[in-house]
Amino acid sequence: MRNFLKKLNQASVKREAKWKRVYHDNGQLWYEVPYITGQAQGTARRYHPNGQLECETPYVNDKKHGMERWYNSEGELETEILYLEGQKKIHTVHHPQVY
Question: Per the domain annotation, does 24 fall within a domain?
Answer without folding.
Answer: yes
